[in-house]
Amino acid sequence: MIAGSRTGKRPDAMIESLRIGAMSFFATALILFLGAGTGLIG
What transmembrane ranges does the database entry give (predicted)? Predict the structure, then answer.
């Protein structure tokens, strides 16, 4: 984890919330994709 070098003027909480939001969005998309795939296969 690189801290302080690239954050600049942004607070760490904002970056953390954005990262958590992106991870949750990716996880939801992955679950939906897997569900659609298994639905088409079986």
Answer: 20-41
